[in-house]
Structure of ATPase:
Amino acid sequence: MNRLIIKKAISMGETSLGIEFGSTRIKAVLIDNTFETIASGSYEWENQLEDGYWTYNLEDIISGLQEAYRAMKQEVEQNYGITLQTIGSIGFSAMMHGYMAFDNTNQLLVPFRTWRNATTGAAAKELTNKFQFNIPERWSIAHLYQAIIDEEQHVPQIRFVTTLAGYIQWLLTGNKALGVGDASGMFPIDETTRNYNESMINQFDELIAGKGYPWKTNDLLPKVYVAGEQAGVLTKEGAEILDPTHHLQPGIPLSPPEGDAGTGMVATNSVRKRTGNVSVGTSVFAMIVLEKELSKLYPEIDMVTTPNGSPVGMVHANNCSSDINAWLGLFREFYEAMGQKVDSDKLYSVLLSKALEADPDGGGLLSYGYFSGENITGLEQGRPLFVRSPESKFNLANFMRIHLFTAFGALKIGMDILTKEENVAIDSILGHGGIFKTPVVGQKMMAASLNVPVSVMSTAGEGGAWGMAILASYMINKDQEESLEDFLDQKVFKNVEGQEIQPDEVDVKGFETFIERYKKGLVIEQSAVDNLV
């Protein structure tokens, strides 16, 4: 599309904006009505461990939102000579789950507790038994019930509980709304109503009835919306928060706020049944759209939904790329100590590619990139760990392969339940995230771990913010009764190319050897947690 057409689209508001709060970056992506990126902006941030909880403070949330928007707006001005004043639609997404509780004056009662906290084990276990439905530790209802168990002083004062995406939506529109995908990480969803499960809501109210709290569970939760519905409009106050220069006008429609899992499904066109995607970053999660319900409850499998309410089996591991990044940082330090400078992309490409030269099983090496606890393997805390025996083949190729393998270790354990025990059919897996920036390597390692073809689309680098922009665009550009699946297939991804890599039998066998070593070595990781302070 030429510059004049894009310039007109911007001035006419024929655009959609997606802003996603990831674990290490807030990103804003503005697209036109052909779904091409016009401009983007970002803000780097990190969570902090404060008083035993992983959190981000409200000041960083707001300043990060404003900086990502400002950088995107500045790119529009530089490239097209236009000051952004209106947008066709906006959507916000963020890390799923977690806990933000507010009182009747809209004040945050305790610091935001993110998905990364493994502090709700007792609550999650009790609710899972009560509902006969898996309640993961990071879900909002687990955080709320753990606060009740611990008799935290703030609980009677709660009047609203939401996720980070829901908080941003509320702040900018005044509407307490949540997309069904993100809502399914707060409380179980009834597939038929695409709303909170009413019988489980009643069970929870009965469970806590003796506490005498001045609220019912339904009163605390945001209203659930599905993709394509409008979930509020940008208020005057909201516009001034998003754009403190006061150029942006109020009245812009907002789509339902979603979780990063939902935007990952959209960004990889993985919302149809029998499709799936794996998102790789600080954490790693696989989302498989199911044809039918699972035969029984599995603590390792979260039941969530697509942004339009279809059931999804989610395998979420808390740890993935952090330890790889730490090791590559060490190699960078060595290189720079030798008086050399190295480009980050080249550093990653060279070192990760060494994994292709390794022994199939990684030469007997073992590592755990556990910066935090890992519920799939039963670890409440983490200790990054690398270990080998005197007989291990310790070289750079095996070292790199083993760190890529272990990044998918906990994920593999959960996925085996779906594929081997439940015989869930998966036609394709779409991968997205930083590991896939290096061609072939990440795909081959994941294909080996999951034993299914893994594809990476040319749009994969656009990420969740682009996926959120697509959801915002769907709200205003869909044909009447057009499903999200058809909108993605026939409009967004019609001409998008992808590269598929089939699992290599030698690599698959190598990973199977590794994963048995990984399972046996978990006692070493537990010992490190117990003894290394």
Notes: The chain has a mean pLDDT of 94.
